[in-house]
TrEMBL record:
Keyword Transferase on entry: no
Keywords: NADP, Oxidoreductase
UniProt biased composition (Acidic residues): 15-28
A GO MF term: oxidoreductase activity, acting on the CH-OH group of donors, NAD or NADP as acceptor
The organism's place on the tree of life at top rank: Eukaryota
Region of interest (Disordered), ranges: 1-53
Cited Pfam families: adh_short (PF00106)
Record protein name field: Carbonyl reductase
Signal keyword on record: no
InterPro entries linked: CBR1-like, NAD(P)-bd_dom_sf, Sc_DH/Rdtase_CS, SDR_fam
Amino acid sequence: MESQREKEKEKDSEREEDTESENDEREEERECQKLRDRQKEKRERAKERREKRRQQISLLRTIPYSDHQRWWSADTIALVTGANRGIGFEIAHQLAMHGLTVILTSRDVAVGEESAKVLQEGGLNVLFHQLDIVDPSSIKVFTEWLQQNGGGVDILVNNAGVNFNHGSDNHFECAEQVIHTNYFGTKNIIQAMIPLMRPSSSGARIVNVSSRLGRINGRQNRIGDLTLRRQLEDVDSLSEELIDRTVTSFLEQVKDGSWTSGGWPQTYTDYSMSKLAVNTYTRLMAKMLSDRPEGQKIYINCYCPGWVKTAMTGWAGHTSPEEGADTAVWLALLPDQVVTGKFFAERREVSF
């Protein structure tokens, strides 16, 4: 009899434990669902803000520049690298639509000539010349041609770049090419063009096409090494050597397989590192160019075009090339330019 009661107690105890376990599971599921709901609401609010800002910019683009704002003319020369397609092509298109003379460049001669022809047939003043931003001989030929045909440029838009990761991919077979093109190539053109940027009371302008993925203090994709982050943040002690050393160290760790423990960005890592270098170099150059005398000022900024529907993103973006090009054109044409060394997205300054 006693044994039977003990067995019943054990069964009651087991049932209670099962009930508690089920209650815990249900409570955990409710909490998970609440979290999913909050995340969904957050995404929807972000989408609404993005759409509202997109509409605002679309409206701004319909407002023409007034005569006193137009510091440029048909004699103003804008150079756009990697402009045979995508964002670069649209930047060249919009600048030409504003009445500037645009030099459209591309590695591939046939493709570049065809792209320039499309714009020329629309009555726009567009020239083409081959330019490979990682090939010193190509850069030399281009600069010599530029000196013989116009003598220089007023606006430089560094758009040329590569990315080999799509979707959730994060491979490194092309990491060296990505770094050399996106960072060192951009640096090559800046250094080659600075002596050829024409003096003017409005100042010459450099716009670097970059990405939020390269933010030093991005919430989700930043460098894990706090000491390095602080060094890259400090514009007073920032140097070209530090930036070069950072990307070189990254590439060395990619080669030996130790990059995962290096604290590097975890999303589109090679592309993110290349754009982090571009962003940081933009700030460095702004400081170095800041002491140029009036009439010889050069203003340099970078911007993120967003996730644009182009071949580079595998056509997976949510922003059109026209929208992606807008901030670059806006920065290039800013009246009374006093902004330099800043990072922008959707015509707004964002933090590095």
